């Protein structure tokens, strides 16, 4: 026993972990909604804007952080990341909030992005490992819920604080700093993951007996079950995120430049979209994910996403089509690839490299978003939004087919049961 304080467990622990998703997603939206304000204030050229977007929490910053976080989480435990990651995040947020030149803003963006990436694999891993088998989707869905609430509130704040200009943006980052501090305080009494602790003892015993080889990351590619999981998870998450991730930065731009909306109208529309995602995450994924056929639930969200982009791409962009798009996409996102990726990626790998696998895949996905985010505005300018929309639709159809074809049969099973079914009685060690 580490000290005499009462440990934080159950739903309270889940909420303490999930709150990180609020500030992580909030950081992405806060940066995106204030990009033009910083550009005007610091006279940032197009190269500087590209650096900010590509190294942010939406792209390479988070990608690198996820690689680091996955390794630390599996090597040293889940708890150590909870103690230090948010301190780094708060330091980065302070840099951004107080920036008065471009190097300071860029440094804060990189630090925040890495901190966001570090937290992703440990959050989903810890929640899944500590959740009851009959409530795993509900518990993992809490992280997705917080991820959706972050952008919703941040967009609403952007609308309310728009008259204050850049000072309003600094206040948005201040609110993220405060929430991060509260979350860090709530996490102080989290216990180590019991599954990880048990697996560590087992691994040490095996190494002591010297009759079994130590597992390594190469198992991710040498074992067929791992390759199948990687195909599924990158297939749904990368291709869905090539659309969704680009939307995180460019939808306000599309609303304004293609649809003719004002900045305030664009932010309000995005806030409404995220509100729908919050509702369907709670009433759809959290309430039904442990009870109904997951192939059906995933497929429903995927089809709704494709229809949303068909409407946005091929119909005139007016208020009717924009509302239809927002309703369909916002609702689909709550039961879509993000939620199922968070669930399945925590179920389909063994404990000793579960977070490492997540970190590696998250790195691949976020790197893909960084490349596509660079190409997208050029594609829209050179060819048209319609061409870009067709590419988005192709991405979504690919993720739909992969997800429906490869949905795993894990609902209601313990992680130990899933591990035994996939790897055999003697887990690779």
UniProtKB/TrEMBL annotation:
<feature type="transmembrane region" description="Helical">
    <location>
        <begin position="106"/>
        <end position="128"/>
    </location>
</feature>
<feature type="transmembrane region" description="Helical">
    <location>
        <begin position="322"/>
        <end position="344"/>
    </location>
</feature>
<feature type="transmembrane region" description="Helical">
    <location>
        <begin position="297"/>
        <end position="316"/>
    </location>
</feature>
<dbReference type="InterPro" id="IPR005828">
    <property type="entry name" value="MFS_sugar_transport-like"/>
</dbReference>
<keyword id="KW-0813">Transport</keyword>
<feature type="transmembrane region" description="Helical">
    <location>
        <begin position="385"/>
        <end position="406"/>
    </location>
</feature>
<dbReference type="InterPro" id="IPR020846">
    <property type="entry name" value="MFS_dom"/>
</dbReference>
<protein>
    <submittedName>
        <fullName>MFS transporter</fullName>
    </submittedName>
</protein>
<feature type="transmembrane region" description="Helical">
    <location>
        <begin position="80"/>
        <end position="100"/>
    </location>
</feature>
<keyword id="KW-0812">Transmembrane</keyword>
<keyword id="KW-1133">Transmembrane helix</keyword>
<feature type="transmembrane region" description="Helical">
    <location>
        <begin position="267"/>
        <end position="285"/>
    </location>
</feature>
<feature type="transmembrane region" description="Helical">
    <location>
        <begin position="21"/>
        <end position="41"/>
    </location>
</feature>
<dbReference type="InterPro" id="IPR036259">
    <property type="entry name" value="MFS_trans_sf"/>
</dbReference>
<feature type="transmembrane region" description="Helical">
    <location>
        <begin position="360"/>
        <end position="379"/>
    </location>
</feature>
<dbReference type="Pfam" id="PF00083">
    <property type="entry name" value="Sugar_tr"/>
</dbReference>
<feature type="domain" description="Major facilitator superfamily (MFS) profile">
    <location>
        <begin position="13"/>
        <end position="411"/>
    </location>
</feature>
<keyword id="KW-0472">Membrane</keyword>
<feature type="transmembrane region" description="Helical">
    <location>
        <begin position="140"/>
        <end position="161"/>
    </location>
</feature>
<dbReference type="InterPro" id="IPR005829">
    <property type="entry name" value="Sugar_transporter_CS"/>
</dbReference>
<feature type="transmembrane region" description="Helical">
    <location>
        <begin position="230"/>
        <end position="255"/>
    </location>
</feature>
<feature type="transmembrane region" description="Helical">
    <location>
        <begin position="47"/>
        <end position="68"/>
    </location>
</feature>
<feature type="transmembrane region" description="Helical">
    <location>
        <begin position="167"/>
        <end position="186"/>
    </location>
</feature>
């Amino acid at each position: 026993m580490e000290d005499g304080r009462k440990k934080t467990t159950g739903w309270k622990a889940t909420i303490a972990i999930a709150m990180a998703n609020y500030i992580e997603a909030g950081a992405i939206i806060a940066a995106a909604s204030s990009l033009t304000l910083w550009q005007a204030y610091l006279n940032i050229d197009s190269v500087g804007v590209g650096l900010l977007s590509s190294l942010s929490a939406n792209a390479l910053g988070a990608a690198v952080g996820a690689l680091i976080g996955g390794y630390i989480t599996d090597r040293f435990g889940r708890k150590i990341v909870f103690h230090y990651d948010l301190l780094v995040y708060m330091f980065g947020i302070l840099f951004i909030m107080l920036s008065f030149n471009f190097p300071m803003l860029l440094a804060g963006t990189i630090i925040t992005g890495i901190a966001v990436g570090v937290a992703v694999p440990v959050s989903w891993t810890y929640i899944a490992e500590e959740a009851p088998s009959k409530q795993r989707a509900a518990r993992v869905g809490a992280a997705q819920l917080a991820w959706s609430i972050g952008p919703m509130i941040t967009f609403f704040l952007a609308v309310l604080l728009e008259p204050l200009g850049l000072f309003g943006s600094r206040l948005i980052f201040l609110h993220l700093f405060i929430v991060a501090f509260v979350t860090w305080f709530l996490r102080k009494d989290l216990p180590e993951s019991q599954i990880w602790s048990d697996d560590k003892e087992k691994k040490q015993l095996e190494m002591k007996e010297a009759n079994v080889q130590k597992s390594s990351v190469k198992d991710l590619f040498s074992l067929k079950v791992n390759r199948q999981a990687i195909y599924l998870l990158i297939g749904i998450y990368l291709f869905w995120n090539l659309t969704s991730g680009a939307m995180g930065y460019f939808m306000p731009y599309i609303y304004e430049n293609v649809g003719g909306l004002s900045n305030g109208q664009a932010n309000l529309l995005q806030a409404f979209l995220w509100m729908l995602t919050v509702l369907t995450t709670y009433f759809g994924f959290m309430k039904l994910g442990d009870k109904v056929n997951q192939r059906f639930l995933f497929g429903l969200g995927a089809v709704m996403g494709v229809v949303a982009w068909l409407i946005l791409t091929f119909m005139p962009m007016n208020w009717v089509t924009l509302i239809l798009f927002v309703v369909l996409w916002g609702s689909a996102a709550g039961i879509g690839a993000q939620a199922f990726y968070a669930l399945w990626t925590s179920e389909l790998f063994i404990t000793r490299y579960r977070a490492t696998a997540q970190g590696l895949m998250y790195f691949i996905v976020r790197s893909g978003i960084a490349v596509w985010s660079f190409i997208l505005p050029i594609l829209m300018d050179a060819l048209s939004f319609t061409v870009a929309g067709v590419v988005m639709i192709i991405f979504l159809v690919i993720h739909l087919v992969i997800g429906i074809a490869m949905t795993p049969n894990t609902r209601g099973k313990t992680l130990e049961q899933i591990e035994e079914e996939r790897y055999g009685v003697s887990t690779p060690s």
